[in-house]
Amino acid sequence: VENAIERLAMARELFGRNAALIRSEKALSEADRRKNEFIATLAHELRNPLAPIASGLQVLRLTTDAVAARAILTVMERQLSQVTRLIDDLLDISRITSGKVLLRPKRVLVDVSMEEAAEAALPLVRAANHTLTVILPQQPLWLEADPARLVQMIGNLLSNSAKYSENGSLITLSARAQDAEVIIEVTDTGLGIPEPMLSQVFDMFTQVNHTLERAQGGLGIGLALVRQLVEMHGGSIVAASAGAGFGSTFSIRLPMAPAPPNTSIGLPEGQ
Ligand code: ADP
């Protein structure tokens, strides 16, 4: 009997190991599939802006029309900045995941970062005929944050709203204080996000199947990057949407910082 029990235990262990092996093989092939898909999309996304740049160069070589040349240069600049942003995001992701990104935190006024991000998003907003409204907080709100990274987080949300909204939509950027936190919110009246995807959009390489999607390009890393940066600042980010077609709201919560000493903001001049 003892022998039989021993054999049974052995068989069980072998079976368990086999099942674990099959499971890890499955996980590996899933990771492999995602990686291959990512490489194909990446190649596509890098290749896409290059075609208009190449044909623009050809036309520039032949044209003597200064107005046409300027229009072509504008298109080329836009395509170039798209490739640059993509590569910067990729570099950022690899630096952040390997812990190589260092924040240079400073005491910053949230208004300043909001205005800077709005300014940077303007070309994209205007190109799609959207209206961007910035609602600044009623009182000065301070954060302890890396100013460039803060602008990057807000800017990323704004450009997503511009990308994932039908032409002529409304985008609102606002900030307010709640308890000891500053809430920075980007709301749009765009394509919206189905409920099951609301938390998944922050995962790397995750994209919602909007019909506009392929025309918009992208790799599904922007929001993963934003979440990492927000968390490095001790904050959190959530998405909300009333569903496909009903717009989206992204809310970043960051710990509020006290006003720096000797600040005269909010005080009458001379104090
Ligand atoms: P990318 O824009 O490069 O695809 P992101 O990580 O920035 O990658 O976004 C992931 C996905 O989340 C997008 O592909 C899109 O499907 C969805 N998404 C992001 N922002 C919005 C938004 N404001 N409205 C609707 N969908 C959005």
Give a description of the structure.
The chain is α+β, with helices and mostly antiparallel strands. Helix content is 52%, strand content 17%. The chain contains seven helices and seven strands. The protein has helices spanning 2-47, 50-62, 66-97, 110-127, 147-163, 213-216, 222-232, and strands at 106-109, 131-135, 142-145, 170-178, 181-188, 236-241, 248-257. Strands 1, 2, 3, 4, 5, 6 and 7 form a seven-stranded mixed β-sheet that branches. Helix 2 runs antiparallel to helix 3 (66-97) and helix 5 (147-163) runs antiparallel to helix 7 (222-232). The longest helix is centred in the first third of the chain and has 46 residues, at 2-47. The structure holds adenosine-5'-diphosphate (ADP). The site of adenosine-5'-diphosphate has 21 residues, from helix 5 and helix 7. Residues 160-161, 164, 188, 190-193, 201, 206-208, 210, 218-224, 248 line the site of adenosine-5'-diphosphate. Keywords: Kinase, Membrane, Phosphoprotein, Transferase, Two-component regulatory system. Its EC number is 2.7.13.3.
Q: What is the makeup of the main sheet? A: 7 strands, mixed
- Look at the structure and give the mean pLDDT: 88
Q: Count the helices. How many?
A: 7
State Rg: 24 Å
Membrane topology: Multi-pass membrane protein
Protein name: histidine kinase
GO cellular component, one term: plasma membrane
EC number: 2.7.13.3
